Each structure stands twice: as structure tokens, then as C-alpha cells.
From TrEMBL:
Domain Response regulatory, residue spans: 16-135
Superkingdom, taxonomy of origin: Eukaryota
This protein's name: Response regulatory domain-containing protein
GO biological process: phosphorelay signal transduction system
CDD domains recorded: REC (cd00156)
Cited InterPro entries: CheY-like_superfamily, Sig_transdc_resp-reg_receiver, ST_Response_Regulator
Length: 135
């Protein structure tokens, strides 16, 4: 399932985000946050769907991935995406106090950072600014 939108009135290229999340509420929350910040936003529910979407040729500026995905978890999906040559920002999200992975292992496979849920407008604004080169 993919949500597309956020057209630019100036015709400028929009930032794009792939949200990979199994929880409906978190998925909706992230979609709204990124769309409100001007991202063209796509949504899938599993690591396999993310791999398939990128394998089909879709490109994203940032991938936001829940850490506890069914079948192929976020560490496995990130590893595969990096092997496929994806060099864009990949971030993981996890429930506060429920860290299920060794963070060092997450970074070794290619996650750029991990945030506790819920993501906030400030976090998304910071990511947007970083991606736009306005550090």
C-alpha cells in the first residue's frame, strides 16, 4: 500500500520518504509528519515490501523503518538494502524502553540512527534540514 502526494507548486523536486511500519497508528502518524514537512511519502508494512519497492526502481531520500517488522526485521532489511547499493539515510524507530537490538549491530549493518517512538515534528524537521543540506 503506498500513499503518494505532496506536489510542489514550483515544480521543484520534493524529498521522498519510505515509511516501513507494521503498526497502523505509527504508520499513519509518520505519514502525516513527513507529508506535512513536504515529503512525497510511500508506505509499506514489511521489510520485504521495502526491498521489492526499491528493487523495482523506486528511490527515496530517507527510509524510516520500525525495528520490529514481521518476517524480515529492520536489521535484515537494512543489510539487504545496503548490499543492493542504497546509500540514502535509513533510520530505525523503536518503542521507548523496548530496545530489542544491540545498537552497535544496527549501525554496523547500515542504520544511520535510531529514534524512540513517537517521532516528532522537530525530528522530522531536523531530518529534512539535514537532507536539504541545511545542517
Amino acid at each position: 500500500m503506498a500513499f503518494e502526494g505532496c506536489s510542489s507548486p514550483t515544480g521543484a523536486r520534493l524529498m521522498s520518504a519510505l515509511i516501513v511500519e507494521r503498526n497502523n497508528c505509527v504508520r499513519y502518524h509518520h505519514t502525516i509528519l513527513f507529508k506535512n514537512r513536504g515529503f512525497d511519502t510511500y508506505v509499506v508494512t514489511t521489510g520485504e515490501e521495502a526491498i521489492d519497492l526499491i528493487y523495482s526502481g523506486k528511490k527515496f531520500d530517507v527510509i524510516v523503518m520500525g525495528m520490529t517488522l514481521p518476517m524480515m526485521n529492520s536489521v535484515q532489511a537494512t543489510r539487504k538494502l545496503r548490499i543492493m547499493g542504497v546509500d540514502k539515510m535509513i533510520i530505525g524507530t523503536e518503542v521507548k524502553g523496548y530496545l530489542t537490538y544491540d545498537n552497535n549491530n544496527c549501525y554496523e549493518v547500515g542504520l544511520d540512527r535510531i529514534y524512540e517512538l513517537p517521532l516528532t515534528r522537530e525530528i522530522v524537521a531536523s531530518l529534512h534540514n539535514e537532507l536539504m543540506g541545511h545542517n
